[in-house]
Design a protein that fits this description.
The chain has about 425 residues and is of the alpha+beta class. The chain has 12 helices and 18 strands. The strands form 5 sheets. Strands 3-2-1-6-11 form a 5-stranded mixed sheet. Strands 14-13-12-17-18 form a 5-stranded mixed sheet, with helices on both faces.
Length: about 425
């Protein structure tokens, strides 16, 4: 299989690091060739706190994926998240020199480039500029202005900002683990591509990705991303609360949460008790499940309320911003019992759990369609999309006729190749890492 396209998604999370190798089968579905997992020791709340440990965890996950798949991993698509990510809205415009010529990609590129020069807080950098609606002269709500006539091109932008140092640290870890950074993607966007349908994005939907260290939110409406936010709480905070509230060790708290945890305290009876083995010959501890779910409920309620504030900030109560498709919950934390019911109760919106199985080939292992792999599957999809795009560009270049006359050659002006800002940012990051050697 000479022209077989293989990509690798690397999800650097707070609790686990996942390397996923895959390709598309003849039906356009994802065929997972190998997956490697390692406990994430050097990441706190989505931010690298220990470079050496993170490098070791990445290498461990990559080696496992390589041995399962028999493939050598070089290029990876990495997701970024963390409490340092924030988003803002911005409007900008350009005045075109010649209104008699149609608007082309170069004009949009110029406008997006202008937004990229916005002055941010010290240590912050714009990592994503997403155009929303355009306005040509005084005509509003235009989705695609290319090909139209107009003197003034205006647009609303969703701008995602992050701390340069945090992103460079992730780049440094990937490079030091012997890998190439093929692309960087915002994790909520990766999760969205793996669990949301196009219809949901059109109708209006809020994706809540509950990870170990953070809870990521991405809101879509009319097929366009409208709002992103990162809340610095996740499943680990719930474990921490159980550990403190029941005076037990972290490992036991995590097991209790997974096995007996519930976000709804009303369903457990006072008589339901679980016994925890004591440390080093001490008496076993008895914990009532009602007490356990009260601890979980209090923290989950706080997380959901934080997310709901962000959904309100976006303006979901207005007619224009209504989220008809409601909420989709994904990530490892979404597997908590009765979480969906609690989210529906707090927000008054419909909710479902998002599984990435829609994009996976039919013979994939069941464990791969778990919500905790939503980000890794999304990153893999992003990698395959990039590979395909590069291959198509290569084919177009090869197919150009060789016997173009000199006159024609002069007339053919090179068009600026429109790069996404993540591509530009990745290139900048690569240069920085190379120069930092």
């Amino acid at each position: 299989m000479k022209n077989e396209m293989i990509a690798v998604g690397l999800d650097i999370g707070t609790t686990k690091i996942v390397a996923m190798i895959g390709r598309k089968n003849e039906y356009g579905k994802l065929e997972i060739l190998g997956i490697g997992k390692a406990k994430s020791l050097g990441v706190k709340r989505g931010v690298v706190s220990n470079i050496t440990q993170t490098i070791q965890s990445i290498q461990q996950a990559v080696e496992e994926a390589e041995s399962v798949s028999g493939q050598k991993i070089d290029d990876v698509v990495v997701g970024i998240a963390g409490q340092h990510i924030r988003s803002l809205h911005h409007s900008d415009y350009i005045t075109r020199e010649n209104a008699d010529e149609v608007i082309d990609e170069a004009d949009i590129y110029k406008l997006v480039n202008q937004v990229h020069k916005l002055v941010m807080l010290p240590g912050e950098e714009i990592i994503h500029v997403l155009p929303q609606e355009f306005k040509v002269d005084s005509q509003p709500d235009i989705k695609e202005p290319v090909g139209m006539y107009g003197g003034r091109l205006e647009a609303n932008f969703h701008v995602v900002v992050g701390q340069v140092s945090s992103i460079r640290n992730i780049g440094r870890c990937v490079k030091s683990a012997g890998l190439n950074l093929a692309n960087i993607t915002l994790e909520p966007l990766a999760s969205a591509s793996s669990v949301l349908s196009q219809e949901e994005k059109e109708a209006g939907v809020a994706l809540i990705d509950i990870g170990g260290g953070t809870t990521d939110l991405a809101i879509f409406k009319d097929g366009i991303i409208r709002h992103t936010a990162v809340i610095p709480f996740g499943g680990n905070v719930i474990t921490e609360d159980i550990k403190e509230g029941c005076s037990i060790i972290e490992k036991q708290a995590e097991l209790l949460k997974i096995k007996f945890g519930s976000a709804w305290p009303g369903e457990n009876k006072e008589t339901e008790i679980v016994s925890i083995p004591g440390l080093r010959g001490r008496e076993p501890k008895e914990i009532t499940l009602k007490n356990l779910s009260k601890i979980i409920h209090a923290r989950v309620q706080e997380i959901v309320e934080h997310v709901y504030v962000e959904i309100k900030n976006y303006g979901h109560e207005t007619q224009k911003g209504k989220l008809i498709a409601g909420i989709v919950l994904t990530g490892g934390g979404s597997q908590l019992k009765h979480l969906r019911q609690l989210v529906e109760y707090i927000t008054g919106m419909d909710a479902r759990i998002g599984y990435p199985n829609e994009h996976l080939a039919g013979d994939s292992e069941d464990s791969l369609s778990s919500p905790s792999y939503a980000t890794a599957v999304g990153l893999l999809m992003e990698g395959l999309k990039k590979e395909k795009k590069e291959e198509e560009e290569l084919v177009v270049v090869e197919e150009q006729p060789k016997n173009i006359g000199k006159e024609e050659e002069i007339k053919k002006e090179p068009k600026p190749k429109k790069k996404s800002f993540f591509e530009k940012f990745t290139e900048g990051l690569k240069d920085f890492l190379d120069n930092a050697e």
